[in-house]
Amino acid sequence: MSNNVQDSKTENSQESKWRSRELGALWVRNGKNQKYLSGSVNIETMPGVTETLKIVVFTNKNREKNERAPDYVVYRSEDPVEKVAQEAAQEVSSSSASEKQESSEEIPEELF
């Protein structure tokens, strides 16, 4: 076997070992006040069930006050699209509740 083929097999083996240990990925973003990391991690919630969790990572501003504090802090990301969808769902449920209340006022109580 030539060195090129053997090197390729070794690289593929090392890559697959790293790939099997991969939990997610992060990208550097430029915020209004500082740079931060944004991305996702895959968490196995039950055997065979993986959930993707969107996260953001900021430098810890309290690090200067306490030398034992962590350098970075990880937060669950609030997805703007998901947040808008949740707000819309809350509006629909609250408006349907008020419609039910209004419609029940029109129907005589004996019919309930």
Oligomer: single chain
Helical/strand content category: alpha+beta
Structural domain count: 1
Instruction: Name the shape in a single word.
Output: extended
Mean pLDDT: 78
Structural description of this entry:
With 112 residues, the protein is of the alpha+beta class. It has one domain. Helices cover 41% and strands 31% of the residues. The chain contains two helices and four strands. The chain has a four-stranded antiparallel β-sheet, with no helix packed on it. A hairpin with a 2-residue loop joins strand 2 (35-46) and strand 3. The termini are far apart.
What would you say about this model in short?
The protein has helices spanning 3-21, 80-106; strands at residues 24-30, 35-46, 49-59, 72-76. It has 112 residues and is α+β, with helices and mostly antiparallel strands. β1 (24-30) and β2 form a beta hairpin.
Features:
alpha+beta, 31% strand, four-stranded antiparallel sheet
Produce the secondary structure layout.
Elements: H1 3-21, E1 24-30, E2 35-46, E3 49-59, E4 72-76, H2 80-106
Antiparallel strand pairs: 1-2, 2-3, 3-4
